[in-house]
């Protein structure tokens, strides 16, 4: 580089150094304020609740609203997500149970939602995530609930029926599957592909056209698939970036999912009821999830849905699950927009309660921001 070229570059780097110093000071100042917030929360008595999903949603939405570029809104929100995560860790480190093992998409979702300062702890099964949070060993849990191509995760829905936990948030993750193998693998000799059954299903067409002869072996998770191929020479795994990095694997083919917008929705479960994320100048964007049991009578479903229509409440999902007891003939899981404190939502819930065998509010929570 010539002396002439160096001059403008030096000047720009000096400017970046000055800006970094200002950003550093401001982040430290913000962190000091977060410590004061923690003191106020502690002083209010009882069990202080440090993690506030509604406030985090407000902060991120505001940042996205105010951002004028050149970084795009999501990129900017991701930076603030990490700043808030570090501030929360100063107040109190959060421990989050997720459906393991290490490297699953659920761990990726947990880190996307809570940021990298959260401590994520793998659990062997969905019920274990629920149990650990119920027992207070973990403050929050993250479980998958539905995939855009494979549908609902029944195990998660069933776990809610007998649980006292509340849904505190949701996070949607774009799922990209890659075909990967270990360094020592003979790529021309691959005879087997491991993955979770759902991931094999999500990549079925791609596998049929590119690797029709390989044996497809379903294992308990994508991360487990990645762990297995690490020590084998004739097999490959379908998994995500996190598992690939964790086990030091090499990519054979990228983004092999059949549906280009394949995504999975995860729920954050905890012991707190989350207030509305609305503010005086922003109505907020919350969702509520309920489970309703109905007797097996003609017209029950129509009766259940009518109040939502009547009060113009947007249903975002409805699932039916077989009942496990005589009383619970039909069990409907319903998600809709609005918060349990909104008057319109309260009317609807009162009406549903008047004819349902049982109504349980699983939680009101901010719509996923990132
Ligand atoms: O506003 C609060 O209650 C805070 O604790 C501060 C803060 C933040 O850094 O903005 C940190 C953690 C909470 O989950 C929400 C927001």
List its traits.
D-Maltodextrin-Binding Protein, domain 2, 6-stranded mixed sheet, binds prephenic acid, Alpha-Beta Plaits, alpha/beta, EC 5.4.99.5, 370 residues
Average pLDDT figure:
93
| Spatial gap, N to C terminus | 41 Å
Helix amount: 40-55%
Superfamily (CATH H level) name of the domain at 275-366:
ACT domain
* Unique bound compounds: prephenic acid
Kindly report the CATH topology of the domain at 275-366: Alpha-Beta Plaits
> What structural class is derived from the secondary structure elements?
alpha/beta
| Total helical elements | 12
Morphology: globular
Largest sheet: 6 strands, mixed
Task: Give the topology string: H per helix, E per strand.
Answer: HHHEHEHEEHEEEHHEHEHEEEHEEHE
Q: What percent strand?
A: 25-35%
Question: What is the CATH class of the domain at 275-366?
Answer: Alpha Beta
Report low-confidence residues grouped into runs of 5 or more.
none
């Amino acid at each position: 580089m010539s002396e002439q070229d160096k001059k403008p570059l030096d000047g720009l780097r000096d400017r970046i150094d000055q800006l970094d110093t200002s950003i550093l000071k401001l982040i430290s100042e913000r962190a000091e304020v977060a410590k004061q917030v923690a003191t106020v929360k502690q002083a209010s008595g009882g069990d202080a609740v440090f993690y506030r999903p509604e406030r985090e949603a407000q902060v991120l939405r505001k940042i996205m609203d105010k951002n004028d570029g050149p970084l795009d809104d999501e990129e900017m929100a991701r930076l603030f997500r990490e700043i808030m995560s570090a501030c929360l860790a100063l107040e109190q480190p959060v421990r989050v149970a997720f459906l393991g093992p290490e490297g699953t998409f659920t761990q990726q979702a947990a880190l996307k939602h809570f940021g990298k300062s959260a401590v994520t702890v793998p659990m062997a099964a969905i019920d274990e995530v629920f149990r650990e949070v119920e027992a207070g060993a973990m403050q929050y849990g993250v479980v998958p609930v539905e995939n855009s191509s494979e549908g609902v995760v029944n195990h998660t829905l069933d776990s809610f029926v007998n649980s006292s936990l509340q849904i505190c948030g949701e996070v949607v993750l774009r799922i990209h599957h890659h075909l990967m193998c270990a360094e020592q693998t003979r790529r021309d000799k691959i005879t087997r592909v491991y993955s979770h059954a759902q991931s094999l299903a999500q990549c079925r067409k791609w596998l049929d056209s590119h690797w029709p002869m390989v044996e497809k072996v379903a294992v308990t998770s994508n991360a487990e698939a990645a762990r297995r191929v690490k020590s084998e020479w004739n097999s490959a795994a379908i998994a995500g970036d996190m598992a690939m990095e964790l086990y030091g694997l090499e990519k054979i083919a990228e983004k092999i999912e059949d549906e280009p917008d394949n995504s999975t929705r995860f729920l954050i479960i905890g012991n707190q009821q989350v207030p509305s994320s609305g503010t005086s100048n922003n109505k907020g964007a919350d969702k509520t999830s309920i489970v309703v049991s109905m007797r097996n009578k003609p017209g029950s479903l129509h009766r259940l849905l009518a109040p939502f229509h009547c009060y113009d409440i947007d249903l975002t999902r409805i699932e039916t699950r077989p009942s496990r007891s005589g009383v619970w003939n039909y069990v409907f899981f319903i998600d809709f927009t609005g918060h349990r404190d909104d008057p319109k939502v309260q009317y609807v819930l009162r009406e549903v309660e008047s004819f349902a065998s049982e109504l349980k509010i699983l939680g009101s929570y901010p719509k996923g921001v990132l």
